[in-house]
Design goal:
single chain; 188 residues; alpha/beta; two-stranded antiparallel ribbon
């Protein structure tokens, strides 16, 4: 691995990401640090890739007249820390020291409210379509940077949204290659 395989984080913001600040965040509970990485997927409209609809959703600027599906979600106030699009671009919406609104009602290892202690990473994708090579490569680099900046994540779990909200959520879906992610993250 070379230095080019690593990014840095300063004041909670990743050097390799395009910053798109979301208003949908708040402070973590006092003395709380990230201990969990939650992998999600999202596509807007469902099953379609590209464009800036996800960005608009996370910044409360989604135009409901652009697609019938948007009328059902325009009221949502959600965010994630990061979005990795299909081409590998990383967008950051919330500083890692803050609490993004990605997990909703959730539970992990005896704790509720996973947003309090997690970093949310959205992959542009669907449950039933393979993710891109560059998304896996960028995810590895992002996890490396997060673990360097937040030592509390070094031995923390990496889970899917489906793991912290079973029965309610299915992402990142059956096409997400957990073995591949484990190989990436265990060899670093």
């Amino acid at each position: 691995m070379t230095d080019a395989d690593y990014w840095t984080i300063s004041e909670g913001w990743l050097s390799g990401a395009r910053k798109v600040a979301s208003p949908n965040f708040n402070d973590r509970p006092e003395q709380e640090t990230p201990k969990l990485i939650v992998v999600h997927n999202i596509s807007l409209p469902p099953g379609e890739f590209g464009g800036r609809h996800i960005e608009a959703l996370f910044t409360n600027t989604l135009n409901p007249s652009l697609h019938p599906y948007f009328e059902n979600i325009v009221h949502l106030r959600v965010s994630a820390h990061f979005l990795l699009n299909r081409l590998g671009e990383i967008l950051q919406f919330v500083a890692t020291s803050d609490r993004a609104w990605h997990a909703g009602e959730s539970h992990w290892c005896g704790r509720d409210n996973c947003n309090d202690f997690s970093i949310g990473i959205e992959l542009e994708g669907t449950d039933d379509e393979a993710y891109t090579e560059v998304q896996y490569a960028q995810l590895r680099k992002l996890i490396n940077a997060l673990r360097c900046y937040h030592p509390s994540l070094v031995h923390g779990d990496i889970v899917g949204h489906c793991d912290i909200a079973p029965g309610r959520k299915t992402d990142p879906g059956a096409c997400f290659d957990w073995q591949r992610l484990a190989e990436f993250t265990s060899s670093d």
